[in-house]
Amino acid sequence: MQVSLKKKAIQKTRIPEGNIFAIRELQDKHFDTTWHAHLEYQLFLVMEGTGTKFIGNTVKPFDKGDLTFLGPNIPHLWRSDESYFEQQSAKTSRGLVIYFNGAALGQLMEKEEFTQLRTLLEKVRHGMEIYGKSAKETALLMHELLYLHGMERVIHLLRIFDLLAKSKEYHLLHDDVVFYQPKDMETNRINTVYNYAAQRFRHKITLEEVSTLLNMTPTSFSRYFTMKTSKSFSYFLTELRIRNACKLLSTDEAKNIAQICYESGFNTLSNFNKQFKTFIGMTPTEYRQKFLLTL
């Protein structure tokens, strides 16, 4: 079964004509703020920076070392934390990305020797998050790839795919294949909503104010957002706040649960605890303790 995402997703092509793939280093104050999709496979490593990634219908925090492999036509956005947008901020966001043309290998993909690669590329149509030793080894290979040329580049890329095809250190981000059709492109409405929510989730956001952004009534906006994202706006906003709380619980031991609750946009500790357990399956205290045990 396929999940059809009919949101605005600007189509981008990143590979020069005549190339099988392209690898690029990204460096700026913050990552691109545009919700977009493209026909190429994408392997993206965060080398520096923190924020929230929106991939298909998934919302998750990202940090240094985050490694994600996406199939074609999966809409995505790595939204840097608000501190990266501050004019006086000295923070920098850096990434390393490989764009791969899946059709470039042509008939070779049908041969027995490429069975594992075919399986891998089918998996990443769900969106794949790689972790552990596999992520670290892949990151090293990606850095080495920057300095290679000609056939060496292609051979090295296949080494990366071989490593990932054999790895069991990954999570699929969606149960179903994520599929976005370019003909369904509309406007930049979802971009507007995502960026506004990412900026304001620590504060109260009403349906009235967010619907005004799109010149809609609250009822029309609510119906529109649910149709395009398969979730209500209130669910999406709670999910965004919970993911921020998870990040703080796992990275900032100086803050207590109450501080994290209010800094993540919740008005009461009781509601925070209830929502956190609903989304994560444990209390904030249990989550923090479990994380500390893994260190």
Automatic annotation (TrEMBL):
Gene3D superfamilies: Homeodomain-like (1.10.10.60), Jelly Rolls (2.60.120.10)
Keywords: DNA-binding, Transcription, Transcription regulation
Residues annotated as domain HTH araC/xylS-type: 191-290
Pfam families (UniProt xref): AraC_binding, HTH_18
PROSITE patterns in the record: HTH_ARAC_FAMILY_1, HTH_ARAC_FAMILY_2
Keyword hit for DNA-binding: yes
InterPro entries given in the database record: AraC-bd, Homeodomain-like_sf, HTH_AraC, HTH_AraC-typ_CS, RmlC-like_jellyroll, RmlC_Cupin_sf, Tscrpt_reg_AraC-type_HTH
GO molecular function, one term: DNA-binding transcription factor activity
Protein known as: AraC-type DNA-binding protein
